[in-house]
Amino acid sequence: MSQKRIVIAGAGLVGSLTAVLLGRKGYKVTVLERRPDMRAVQIPAGRSINLAMSDRGWRALEKAGLAEEVRPIAIPMYKRTMHDEQKNLTYQPYGKDGEAIYSVSRGLLNKLLLSAAERDKEDVEILFDKRITDVDLDAQVLHIRDEETGQQQEIGYDILLGADGAYSAVRNRLMYNDRFSYSQTYIEHGYKELHMPPGADGKHLMEVETLHIWPRGEYMMIALPNPDGTFTCTLFFPWEGKESFASVQTDEEIDALFRRRFPDLIDLIPDYREQFRHNPTSSLMYVKCHPWNYKGNILLLGDAAHAIVPFYGQGMNAGFEDARIFTEMLEANDWDFEKVILAFAEIQYKNGHAVADLAMRNFVEMRDLTADPEFLLRKKIERKVHEKSPSEWVPLYSMVTFRETGYAEAWAEGLRQDRIMEQVMQLPGIHENWDSDAVTDLVLSLNKTVK
Amino acid sequence: MSQKRIVIAGAGLVGSLTAVLLGRKGYKVTVLERRPDMRAVQIPAGRSINLAMSDRGWRALEKAGLAEEVRPIAIPMYKRTMHDEQKNLTYQPYGKDGEAIYSVSRGLLNKLLLSAAERDKEDVEILFDKRITDVDLDAQVLHIRDEETGQQQEIGYDILLGADGAYSAVRNRLMYNDRFSYSQTYIEHGYKELHMPPGADGKHLMEVETLHIWPRGEYMMIALPNPDGTFTCTLFFPWEGKESFASVQTDEEIDALFRRRFPDLIDLIPDYREQFRHNPTSSLMYVKCHPWNYKGNILLLGDAAHAIVPFYGQGMNAGFEDARIFTEMLEANDWDFEKVILAFAEIQYKNGHAVADLAMRNFVEMRDLTADPEFLLRKKIERKVHEKSPSEWVPLYSMVTFRETGYAEAWAEGLRQDRIMEQVMQLPGIHENWDSDAVTDLVLSLNKTVK
Q1: Are A184 and B182 in contact (CB < 8 Å)?
Q2: Tell me: the pLDDT tens digits for B49-99?
Q3: By C-alpha distance, which of B232, B233, B234, B226 is closest to B203?
Q4: For the whole model, what pTM was predicted?
Q5: Distance (Å) from the C-alpha of residue B239 to the closest C-alpha of chain A?
Q6: CATH number, domain A6-46+55-76+104-183+286-362, options 3.40.50.300, 3.30.930.10, 3.50.50.60, 3.30.200.20
């Protein structure tokens, strides 16, 4: 086996999974993590973060032989449950029978992956509290500072995989290279987590196997279930404006917001005022960059390459898919890292840009369109067409969530579907005849002609 | 007068001009420049760089009392001269009678501004070879390294103006702030300068008071006159592809390109092969960011805030306008720097984003549309309307170049003019009747109704 020195920056989800995938093949891998070992640290309130695992994530875990270990901490969500301001509920299935996305705690999943990587002690070492202060691209040397001791250190690498997240130190170094295009875009919304406790019986206070949404046009609340009977609720809310973090600060203002906009949450989260005041407010941003590589010896993976907003539940899934595809390309190319880094970077960055755009689009869908009867009708028609002809018509959400179509291809196909469905929704009598064969046939026929 | 410590990062065009404007008011200003004093250094071949000064630039120089000093080194260009592949010439005036843009050497202009700033020795000091290595935002302290001696130094500031260019160190520090959106976008073209010597009589080999363009669709050459009888020619050319820097490298390939595409330059630049091989190839990028300030004590100006591609000749003009507007806002607000920094940043960033977009648009116009008879006809119609009714119809190019309409407003108005002129250009017989009163009247009437 090669004695290449492989260094992975970041022991987050993507770094740990990549370490598992390479370690299993006998590669010596050193993982450098800036933070302390999270297995020994308590996660602070309001920072729990749930992920929605979908097919891309599961497939990568299967490749690493870890899917069965993750299943017990994953709760299936088969549909969206929309809460309106009169406490009425409506529903929208995510896919066909049995198709679901899965609520997983980011922390639990990361700990599981760290331990899986370390099981292979001979090949994988994870060093914590190591901050990368500089990368010498020519010498292929990382400059490291130990965050506990302050000690400086240098580590050489043959291959450096930058899986060090949205604020990647590796990417920050590449940013000073000529012809490295880069953007970080903060959106006009921030978020705040609220914790919904279990009921007196220790069980969930709302239906469990669903993703709850309070769509309010310009903003929304969502809630994902946890295995301990709780829900993690997240408010995505503008920083400034009439209804915003800036204008809602006192108990009276918080009260007024919840009474008017989230009346059903008042009983379910008794201390919502205190939580709103005390839990942190965080910003949301996405990153696009190009190229993802430096020559054949540095490659960005996951959030370091394509941090996105959380609204499609695809951040972790896209990162895991990077690790899976990268490993499969290595297998198919006789573990020629240099060749695969160049090829992977040039193929995948378009998917990274597309998933960033998809995630922004889904914010509008979740916060606004899920409260729009026209949109819900369109989704019903699409689902019917999909059931009748599953290979010819795959709705955009299903392509992203339940298939492995490249994000760029899915995005282009989704825009084409928009053009078709705009025509269909204008048919006279569509509200009465939506589930007729004539409508289904029209969609399938337009699908053959509309470019 | 206030004893505020004002530090300007960068002694380039915008930093020097700002130092003049503030120094004249009695403010103590320290300017930190990373490079050596350019007045003592020879500019290397292929790095001469001409600027096209237009009204925004002149107005700022007038405010600083320097316009008359600059006029002798500025050559007016009243029109575009297009060179086709058969050596034919066509012409397109820039504006109305007497309206011109001015070719100025970047280096000469910068030296003149440095000396003007230092004339005011009591108030302005310029320190060279000082690299900003970090900015402590809370303590308001700059960490500096002397590039000659390696000595470290700290300098406090009350107000820090980041005029340190496209690769601004001040902006790089702000980039790590929460909610600082940033993009650097490299375009698919690079550029290479070629030097056209004077004739045997010491005079220019081509018509002087014009900007020469060789529009070639996907790329172009341009040439701007210098006072010493030379022209600076610049080839804007793709990095990759069939005709590109990657595919044109040997003498044979360079020869083939020039024989086919630039036949009239072969005699005018006898050593074009050697120059093409030896002169550097540089990349082109633009920067957008937001916000341009940090609280009320740091403000980005010029390229640091809005580096743009050179195709509208607006980079320096936009930067000078920043300095002029900033100073005028200070005058109007009793020199309340904190208040003006907040207000300026929030007003001007939209113009910075717009001028970046305008510059990209003009690349397509210069390299492609100036060879398109339909486009040239449209421009002729617009000019006629403008002459008939100068206040009602100001062509986009004139708004940008000869007026001081905010770039964002000009950009929006330009898009509206596009919609009007698309209708006009589709009139039957437009090629014959373009200069009839009926056409002029139609444009003016559409101008009242089209949104």
Answers
A1: yes
A2: 899 999 999 999 999 999 999 999 999 999 999 999 999 999 999 988 889
A3: B226
A4: 0.93
A5: 10
A6: 3.50.50.60
